[in-house]
Amino acid sequence: xxxxxxxxxxxxxxxxxxxxxxxxxxxxxxxxxxxxxxxxxxxxxxxxxxxxxxxxxxxxxxxxxxxxxxxxxxxxxxxxxxxxxxxxxxxxxxxxxxxxxxxxxxxxxxxxxxxxxxxxxxxxxxxxxxxxxxxxxxxxxxxxxxxxxxxxxxxxxxxxxxxxxxxxxxxxxxxxxxxxxxxxxxxxxxxxxxxxxxxxxxxxxxxxxxxxxxxxxxxxxxxxxxxxxxxxxxxxxxxxxxxxxxxxxxxxxxxxxxxxxxxxxxxxxxxxxxxxxxxxxxxxxxxxxxxxxxxxxxxxxxxxxxxxxxxxxxxxxxxxxxxxxxxxxxxxxxxxxxxxxxxxxxxxxxxxxxxxxxxxxxxxxxxxxxxxxxxxxxxxxxxxxxxxxxxxxxxxxxxxxxxx
Length: 404
Hints:
The protein is mainly alpha-helical. It is built from 19 helices and no strands.
């Protein structure tokens, strides 16, 4: 990771660039001139599709775009790249990142091919290519391919530094993408630096959804750095934004994170209220991820109150009912908490079994941070039993994962 480390002068340069930039006009992100009546209707359809995406209605946008694998017959080629962009963006919202990757890659290749056309041909705006590359990075990140995502975002970062990107929203989103990806691989300092830049650039645009995602990511980054008061502030702001936008899924997920932070701050009553609200909402909406995270938070609350038996019952019951619908990361985290509960009861055999189950599950996820944490927990467990050579081996794995 040394080659990825963010230099402080770079952050200051990027911040100075923003301060020197005039506030942009709020125009359509991908607008372009049209001369013919037929192209006017194409432009209107694309603008309407973008509006649906921004309103979190990706299915409607895909229907309007007639997303059957290729732009509608008869559309001039100069509009194809924008069609691919909007279809890819909608697919990302529709939780189809692998399909979005293919669409966006095709769109980017077409964009570059059009840029080589004779200058007499009306070409797509240059920033359209950067938008395609940005969303390609988002699709890679959602497919758990952080290295590929970083490659896309770094191309955007180079364009920002070169002064070839002027769209304030795109600049904000690129910083956000860098921050979220660094956070996912455990590079907390880099994540905070870029997410802070994203927050600053968010003042220049009107995108409350992106602002909420930045605040949520900042809350997670501050939590990892144990800056719990800043984490609480950022998560509270994210909760307000998503409640205002009426996005129940994100409201519930922020509630879980906020409940976990409140628990760490020893505000147990507030934490319990927040976690139970999230659990109830997740059960009503059928959201297995939030349900699992809320259960894990409530189990830790029971442990904090010295009620290990209740924690064990809650986790085992949850795993028996919903383990198939949960991802391996959530199940792995639950097994880690189950191990702590068994440890509190001095049931060493059950605790070790839960730790091994957690390690096995987490190794099938891209979360290096959680994998390292699981090995660290097991190493501490082994050391407490006097099994020092085995403990050393586990802690070596922790060090290797943290160095990646």
